Amino acid sequence: xxxxxxxxxxxxxxxxxxxxxxxxxxxxxxxxxxxxxxxxxxxxxxxxxxxxxxxxxxxxxxxxxxxxxxxxxxxxxxxxxxxxxxxxxxxxxxxxxxxxxxxxxxxxxxxxxxxxxxxxxxxxxxxxxxxxxxxxxxxxxxxxxxxxxxxxxxxxxxxxxxxxxxxxxxxxxxxxxxxxxxxxxxxxxxxxxxxxxxxxxxxxxxxxxxxxxxxxxxxxxxxxxxxxxxxxxxxxxxxxxxxxxxxxxxxxxxxxxxxxxxxxxxxxxxxxxxxxxxxxxxxxxxxxxxxxxxxxxxxxxxxxxxxxxxxxxxxxxxxxxxxxxxxxxxxxxxxxxxxxxxxxxxxxxxxxxxxxxxxxxxxxxxxxxxxxxxxxxxxxxxxxxxxxxxxxxxxxxxxxxxxxxxxxxxxxxxxxxxxxxxxxxxx
Length: 427
What we know:
The chain is built from nine helices and four strands; from the N terminus they run αααββααααββαα. It is of the alpha+beta class. The chain has two domains: 336 residues, Outer membrane efflux proteins (OEP); 66 residues. A four-stranded antiparallel sheet has the order 1-2-3-4, with no helix packed on it.
């Protein structure tokens, strides 16, 4: 960053060197910094939606146990055959005080099927919880990486502002000596103003991105500075392995659970063709005496009732057809989800691969060529071979190249984070 400092017309070199050292990026971790790994842990621990899915899964697990139980027995009590002329309980032999119990039995295997359906839904909520944890890690990584880029871009621009200010001073000095023209001074001042505008724009984006990260890590960690080095993410597995494991992705487990629940709904609809049973046991207490003055015997009654599903065309048949359509819809939804995950995987892997090639190109040639272009422009300007505009273009190109190289690294890391989300490295 001190390409211009060797020029003979810069007597204030020590001051500029001190400024650049002050704004240079920090390369080591210091106290108060927010590493990516800590940001991930903070976000996962405080995410309310993961807790919501866990609570819903536990609720469905409890419901599954309740769904497998028989309905509560019904208790009944009353009086039967009470004469209206006297309302005497002992006048007529058939008058009874009745106490009984009634128990219903649902159709076929409905109880076990309802339990199975609730269990499938509970497994779906657990899968949603796991996917949410992965998604939180992915979003935190993206926000952290965006904030890293904007932070580093701010530092790069701050360094270049020193250089552009230096160019203004140089052109003003040369203009005073008659070795330059006023247009050079105005051009240098214009580029500095544009650079300041770019700095303001990036600062605004930085503040918004910091707020986005604060959503995940909490406001008490929102303003912590980031380390000066780009976080190193785990290497993703080979493409073939990620693709082969996609059916085990939490999103696919959600679809599998919904499909099992829908298929169980078909089985429940089939049970509607079976009768529902009910048993009734009643004890009748009789008062008074027989003609021979003996006590009247009590009565014990036992009955079994059942409904008969005879007219099924617009009831059972319709419910069965509807449940089959719902199961088919769940199956199509599952297939579409797998296709979507496969498409996302192909896009992320292609982006990660090509961005890796571009980063390698920048490291191997582009950044060095940009530096060499600046050095050559300085020498040409010193020798009056090129004009001031050529020198400015070289410096602007160098700035854009540095920012682009940084952006490529960050974008590749974000694509890598997307691959890791699909591969499942998150807790």
